[in-house]
Amino acid sequence: MNSWAQPPMRVASDALELFCEQALVASGAGKDTAAAATRAMMHASRLGVDSHGVRLLAHYVKAIEGGRVNGKAKPRFIREFGATAVLDADNAHGALATYTAMERAAELARLFGTGSVAIRNSSHFGAAGAYALQAAEQGLIGLSVCNSDAIVRLHGGATKFHGTNPIAFAVPVQNEKPWLLDLATSAIPFNRVILYRSLGIKLPAEVASDAGGSDTEDPTAAQMLAPLGGDYGYKGAGLAGMVEILSSVITGMGLSFELTSMVEGEMTQPRHLGSYVAAISPEAFIERDAFDSAMKRYRNALRASPVRDGAKVMAPGDREWAEAETRARKGIPIDPETVQAFAGLSTKFGLQPPSQKTGI
Amino acid sequence: MNSWAQPPMRVASDALELFCEQALVASGAGKDTAAAATRAMMHASRLGVDSHGVRLLAHYVKAIEGGRVNGKAKPRFIREFGATAVLDADNAHGALATYTAMERAAELARLFGTGSVAIRNSSHFGAAGAYALQAAEQGLIGLSVCNSDAIVRLHGGATKFHGTNPIAFAVPVQNEKPWLLDLATSAIPFNRVILYRSLGIKLPAEVASDAGGSDTEDPTAAQMLAPLGGDYGYKGAGLAGMVEILSSVITGMGLSFELTSMVEGEMTQPRHLGSYVAAISPEAFIERDAFDSAMKRYRNALRASPVRDGAKVMAPGDREWAEAETRARKGIPIDPETVQAFAGLSTKFGLQPPSQKTGI
After folding, report:
1. What three-state secondary structure class fits A7?
2. Which of A219, A267, B8, B324 is the S-S candidate for A196 at Cβ 3.0 to 4.6 Å?
3. Which residues 55-84 of chain A have a CB within 8 Å of chain B?
4. Please, where are the H alpha helices in A201-287?
5. What is the pLDDT of residues B186-214, one digit of tens each?
6. Taking the complete model, does pTM exceed 0.95, yes or no?
7. Is B235 on the interface with A (CB under 8 A)?
């Protein structure tokens, strides 16, 4: 969700992409790290997921400069067994780690029908959907999950226990944009709380809690999020647990509540995040034509499903693909804080900041 | 959730198990079908999931007698590729199909790190958790999903689109009961609606809709369910979609809204359900000791997490394991309608119905 006080600056995606790569290289990142981090940010910025978009550039620059993220990391596979592998990411940027892992998962899926890669010693990877999409773009079904520092209480809980622990799942649709699900297992994103603070409006009921775990609609009092599901929040917490087990337990990395904060504290120490990706080859299970036609039949039926008054039905990803189309035309909006951060990076590194898109 | 007007009859699980197997064999089922269907019903009845327990016996007998379910089915693997397989269930009882599929998925997981089996031409399989648990009992992580006849609207939708499309995920915990998640991707189960009808009480807000898709709290007006997530119901609908794609699209079986009703209509035609199971070997990713200790650390922390006023925090499955312990002691409660159905089956097949457990 965006809420701009005034029309934001809009920049062309290629200019934005170039600036991100240059700034990352200037901060000490190798070309592969700069390319992967930029690709992940641009995925989010193109699709309208601004919380995980180029807003993160300044943060990533700091993390690389401080040493938290190893800008020259050489991720390597330390374990291979059948249709699985384990990647030690060497404290790489999470995007380099996860794109590398999904590439291997996709190869394994072509060889074995499915491929699964657990990742150790990674860092923030941005939008989970970027890596699920990577598989779908190769004609495979992709799954990507990651835990993160704790901000979500348990159902009935009074303390931060899980991260927003996203689940992303992408499925190819022949000659069309993939079906793309990318959801946090929390009721809302914490960015919503921050946005509502700045707008001075109340939160919906039962989505956030104060420091004692009690529900609050006051965004300034909100300290943690509820799990997805409201009165049935044990479901959201259970799904977060599934992500936690795949990301942390089978990788040997920290549980959400053991991880250091993404945004607070020194940027000098690696966070040792774990995550997990998998790819499935539809053709292991069914002829390609039958898969393609069933997937179209499903998504078409979904899009055509009758709606409630004033409502809209969309397939997962449809909102994002529509926004991507708009942004390709009008440019990508950059919030004022990020414009300022870009100016700072430009001065520091002697770079040309991306300018307002012309000729819209 | 149970709500008994008076203390129900309670029977010992071994007597109940014997009766189910005998009734199924008498209805024309082979020994393997009777054993599998009974095992799945007993899983649910032991753990307190009565909607999927022995209440279903009379329904299964009818389905076998009518020919909808092939009581003498011989499921066979029609496709094998690397770490995957496809099982044609020959219109078997869903329990025979799914236990057979998970057994293969487990073998594949031991050989390849993960194993995935898609199932064609199956039928109602009861509680999804039964098959995830089957993997966990072998030291593996288990996943099981299935679509079902449509009863859940889309987010913003006005018509039945998805089934309750459950996701079950079970993880072994050394020397203890597994972590066991088994959730419907609907806001509530339709059984809740039926229960509230009989109790004459209002439904919670925003969990069910009338025939036009509008929210209703009147259980007699409720015709369909909302997806999990309330205002964020696109998340529940998206998760249901993930299940739909794995169960229907890659198996070539019907989409939820194309399936015939489980309970209405003739019991003569196979329903051609699809479903999907997967197993993951933790040891493909990490040493067993490290996995076991991390899993315990996670579940212990979860159970010990501070609670909100009057609330309780439980790990997935904890409620069920506690109920199973009570039922092992006191016997399994049988609702009056099922007691009557058992009496009918006893007369018809000349069987001894299970009697009230003594010596509690």
Report:
1. coil
2. A219
3. 79, 81-84
4. 233-244
5. 999 888 898 899 889 999 999 999 999 99
6. yes
7. yes
